[in-house]
């Protein structure tokens, strides 16, 4: 016979089973007198059996019962922020613990799906009885408050860790997988802000556009994988030759961009010359550590002009790079300041 995932089998009422009330979290540290009142209130409450995999509480359904695990274990599946998809969490409810209390108290829908991890016996307390328990026993009210505080802390911790994971993935999406440099998405987001900050603070800012020379030939001769090695070697040269306040990003296929805040044209051209020299002498290692021929790059430097935007600055660096290529590659060219241009 197929198991009905929603209907839990009723096996008894609480008065017919031997279960110590003190083993139930909600009824801990309560005087004997009061325990008698509690036992009386819940004596007719159902005991149901949830088979492994069976749903006990359905996310998005209204809740009017509290479930106390007497044996077995329940597991919770939280709703994602979009309210549609489910993701597994590791939260488990073990004997003595209860689920469903928040929806009983606020009469809102459940925010999670709870299912049986193993075959479980559960005590079902209808919401009207829960309220009577609260009225009759300060101890139950206190235990419930403690439980809610615990739930709030656990939920906050989960939100914090999700935020951290979210930030991790956000950062990851801003990094180029091959070179480890910032990627184009990062550049599109950050360069305009850096430019705005430079204009606002009346500070110089320079960029250096770098393009590897005859890279197609390198790929064609040694293969695309060796080309990737060469790109990684070039990225390492850029990264290791900069100040902590500078940035290097992969702009396109074999094109990279260096951003030098608080750096004028003269200082930027010195940085570019240094990078150009280091690149031409950097070894390109393959996995077998057999060195490949050195690669070279052409460098175009441009310094931010008054009122200039992100695109115009990039265009001028690109023109300087083109000039470096036309002049024989493996060298640096600087874009003249705008008032020096025709
Ligand atoms: N191995 C590898 N090659 C890439 C990657 N991205 C782009 N390339 C290659 O880079 C080469 C760029 O070639 P071109 O634009 O013709 O320029 P070039 O051969 O470097 O010549 P110049 O720039 O004029 O010196 C192409 O062959 C691309 O396939 C990459 O991620 N890995």
Question: Summary?
Answer:
With 342 residues, the protein is of the alpha+beta class. It has nine helices and 14 strands. The termini are far apart.
Question: What does this protein look like?
Answer:
This protein has 342 residues and is α+β, with helices and mostly antiparallel strands. It is built from nine helices and 14 strands. The protein has helices at 32-42, 101-106, 127-136, 138-172, 184-200, 215-222, 224-240, 265-281, 310-326; strands at residues 9-13, 46-50, 55-57, 65-71, 74-79, 86-93, 98-99, 112-116, 120-126, 205-212, 247-250, 255-261, 297-303, 332-334. The strands form three sheets. Strands 1-2-9-4-7 form a five-stranded antiparallel β-sheet. Strands 11-12-10-13-14 form a five-stranded mixed β-sheet, sandwiched between helices. Strand 5 and strand 6 form a beta hairpin. Helix 1 runs antiparallel to helix 3 (127-136). The protein is elongated and about 95 Å long. The protein starts with 8 loop residues before the first strand and ends in an 8-residue tail after the last strand. The model has no long low-confidence stretch (mean pLDDT 88). Guanosine-5'-triphosphate (GTP) is lined by residues 178, 211-217, 219, 224, 227-228, 231, 253-254, 325, 329.
